[in-house]
Amino acid sequence: MYNPKSSVATEFIDDDEIQQTLAYAAANKNNRELIDSILEKAKECKGLSHREAAVLLECELPEENERIRHLAMEIKQKFYGNRIVMFAPLYLSNYCINGCTYCPYHRSNTHIRRKKLTQDEIRAEVIALQDMGHKRLALETGEDPKNNPIEYVLESIKTIYSIKHKNGAIRRVNVNIAATTVENYRKLKEAGIGTYILFQETYNKKAYEELHPTGPKHDYAYHTEAMDRAMDGGIDDVGCGVLFGLNLYRYDFVGLLMHAEHLEAAKGVGPHTISVPRIRHADDINPENFSNAISDEIFEKIVAVLRIAVPYTGLIISTRESKAARERVLKLGVSQISGGSRTSVGGYVKQETEEENSAQFDVSDNRTLDQVVNWLLELGYIPSFCTACYREGRTGDRFMHLVKSGQIANCCQPNALMTLNEYLEDYASPDTRKKGEAVIAAELLRIPNEKVRAIAKEHLQEMHAGKRDFRF
């Protein structure tokens, strides 16, 4: 029986509730009166239930779909303005004991090169990332207790935070590793991680178990309940996601929102981020083998309805997507993107040859970080390298309170501009710097609080004299 407050996976992700929701959405996809009422509710920016969101996703009325797009853009602008947070993944190891049918890291793949970075190699990779201008990383590893134990991850985090190269520093390390114990989550919290990220892949239990036939990841309940354990271990910010294309997208869309509702009901705060990857080609994996792959049109609508349904949650898109696809969803709700990414183990110091390939998936957007920053500036966005909320303790419910009250703009806007200015001073090409300075001058005027605006201007001047790391 469906119970969002339950700690049992099959109760807060209840198959009967999902099926009933899908049937309800299908029956009301042309119900203009209901759709209008849902959109009116959504304008209050307090979010929607999974059932209401499912109706919007299913909607077939062209004029209503246009209203959905415009509302998503309005909500995105209200909470995030023109800010786009930048990050990069760092793959530590691709050793894995799972048998996931969609991932080239699966243990029976003999084609892929297995690698694990030493601490010295991690140091070199981080310096290369710092020299690009990155301040925020997402750590990735395969699941292998022998090769990738929690001690290895903790040591790697310590190494990353210790590296100060020129004006570079990694200020926030998010972690995407396999489901683990409350004790291990507590250790990750003590190590100073930002967000703990774990993709569900699919919320359909039967499909999940078929997609994960062997290895510890086969345990649907243990995996689905991981966010509860992470929060019990003291981690304030967690990030959810599914791999669209593995299962029916409508089912996983509803499951994703039910998971968000569960965390809100059971833990007092929903997910800090939601990721929206689509299945991609990779070594030993052909996406054509997955019949549920989704079109660009459906993908864009998923992003738009997610932005309406969970207005306070960051939406992440990776370099799985092309430049064109990323541009379309940025305005609809995406608030974080990667830049200059490598999905191989290492690869930032020296790009791998085809024969040495250790990548988890093919990258569609191969531009450098500076090219991505330049592109965002041309589109009128503020590429933000901000990590201030995490470092000031504004996490979990404290962060959400600031967002919901509207006060976050007096932190995020100046912090975004100051971290962008750091990038321009230390790493940008001349053309990017010119465009960035123009954007900063214009966007300073959007800071609501006059005193905060004045302090931000003062700090920007101090940066020209060599000072760094200002934050509100």
Q: What can you tell me about this protein's structure?
A:
The structure is a single chain. The chain has 472 residues and is of the alpha/beta class. Helices cover 47% and strands 10% of the residues. It is built from 20 helices and 11 strands. The protein has helices at residues 9-12, 15-27, 32-42, 50-58, 62-80, 119-132, 150-162, 182-190, 205-211, 220-224, 226-232, 249-267, 296-309, 323-330, 369-378, 388-391, 396-405, 409-426, 430-443, 450-464, and strands spanning 83-93, 136-141, 164-165, 168-169, 172-176, 195-197, 237-241, 273-275, 314-317, 336-338, 382-384. Helix 13 (296-309) links the parallel strand 8 (273-275) and strand 9 (314-317). Helix 18 (409-426) packs antiparallel against helix 19 (430-443). The mean pLDDT is 93.
